[in-house]
Structures are given as structure tokens and as C-alpha cells.
What we know:
By secondary structure, the protein is α+β, with helices and mostly antiparallel strands. It is built from eleven helices and eight strands. Helices cover 33% and strands 14% of the residues. The longest helix has 28 residues, at 317-344.
Amino acid sequence: MKVSEVMYCSFPVWYPKFKHVSMKSIVIPLPAEFLEYLHTDGVVLPEGSLVTSGDRDSDEDRVGEEIDVNWDDDAVEATAPSFPAFDAAIKKAIKMLGGKVFPKLNWSSPRDATWIAFDKSLKCTCPSDVYLLLKSSEFITHDLTQPFIRCEDFDESGDQTNVGYSLILRKWQDLNPGYEFRCFVRNNKLIAICQRNHTAYYEFIRQEKEDIVSDIQSFFYHLVSLKFPNENYVFDVYRRDQGKILLLDFNPFGEVTDGLMFTWDELTDSDTELKGTDNDTQSPVFRYRNSGGIQPNPLSTFGVPRDILDLATGTDASKLVDLLKLRQQQEEDSSSEEETENQQT
């Protein structure tokens, strides 16, 4: 995987070519002051980011365009940052998209931060909703700090500011997660498909498996194949109904992208024969959960403080050592207090 391949999967790069088969979206370039705000610790919502009253005017003809904003150099304050022009751009975009949107940056959406939202979803109706999700997401932090970490030609001493980060607001739709599928393309060939919500069982997938594969194949060969610059990539789709496919996103072909029901050894090794639920060598391998049962939510750990996770899993030995030292110090202090009390009595 190379830096250029990751850049081609950046939303502002691919969306203009595929917006006719994707969800209505608006791209707003991020000012340097707001990027600095995202990098700072803590969650302090900017002044003026709450929704204000006013008519929700319709401006559908501008959906999909990039909104230009004149940024104020004095926008950031020490305690309560303020981005009036950025707030105004977000409010305008939300109105243009029907009053409800979900946010993402160039590659990722803050799916890991839904625990902090009032309705536990990515639905946003005002700038403060957007800011809260972005500031609480490790996925967004990865986008900002390590988008090329697994690229073979990435120079860690290089500057990532030329990425051109943008906030993407997409028109809110109530999507059934069972209709979402992840598709893997290697050497311009669709080799594998799996359900995106891979921890859940959906009876209809088993019943409609042939139609699902057929629809995705047709969509790929007619609307995606050879139109996307990379030879190897991953794309996500939403199958609204038979023969109706909506493009959700493109992702790099590599470990930075979740293989879900496939391992990356399977997907990258051309000598390894992929095997799916049904052995049909003429079609891409299709994997889906074919039985029920309780499966853990892969995003459930993101609502737990990082220090607790590190201690529970043993991934950071230094924190365990610090905890043991603290415990020892507490026991010594307790013993010292008991001795003092005994001497006084």
C-alpha cells in the first residue's frame, strides 16, 4: 500500500467522480485553527456552535459543492475557542442537506464516539453535535495523525499538512446496517464480499445471497471498475433494494482497513484460495453470518477510558507497574498511620 493509494481513497478526491451513485454530501475545508483545536486535549465546545433559530431554506442545487469560507485568524481563544465562519458554514450545509447530517473527515467517520451522543448515533443537527463527535473519536485522531502509517513509501519525518483535511457532512438517512456490505478488489477484480455489520445475524442475507452478489457485481463492473484509480482497494455499499446499490465509501486495500470476516493474509496472498460460505469460483467469495448467537460489539470498548483498557488487557506494562507502586505506597501509608495511632494510645 502506497501513500498515493490512500490519498485516492480520501473523500474529497473520489466523491466528485462518484457522487451520482453516492449520498448527497458537502465538503468544507478545515482551517488551520480548527485543526489545532482537534489536536488539543479535552473537549471544550467552541462559542456559538449551538444551533440557532431561523428558517431552514432549501438550497439543493448546491449540494455536493465545496463551500468556501474566509477564516478569521483571531478565531481561537485560549479557554473557549470560537470559529464563527466555520460554524456558519456548517449550519448552512446542514440546512442544505435537510437539517440532519452525519460527519466524517477525509477517511473516517467518528463511529467509535457514538457513546457520547445523546441518541447514540452520528446524527447531527448543529455544529456542537459535530464538534463533540470529532473531539471524542480515536478514528478521527488516526485520520489526523497516522493516515499513512502502514504505507511502504511513507516518510515519517515528512509533513502531512498537504493532505488538505476537510469536514464532510453527508445527508442523514436511516440505514439498516444489515444492508451494508464491504467489497474487496485486487488487481481490478472483485474477489470478496462480506456483510459490514459482521457481528449480527440477518436471515434475509442467507435467503437473498445470490441476488446480493449479483447486484454488487453488476454495480462494480458497470459503475466502479476501471473508474477508480487504484488497482487494489475496498469499497462499501448499501443495497437498498434488489438492483439498487448506493456507494458509501472507498478504503485502502491493506491492514489499515478492517477486513471484517476476512484476514488480510487471505486477501493479499494470491496463492491462497479464498473460501466462502458457498464455493462458487465464478463469483467473488461471499461471507455472511449464517447462524444466530450473541456476538460482541467491536466498538463497545471505545466508551471505556484508555487507562482502564490498557490495565485490563495488559497492553501497557508501565501502567501496571505504576498501579502496583501506588498500591504499595497506599499500604505503607496505611501501616504508618496505624503505628502512629498505636503509639498515641
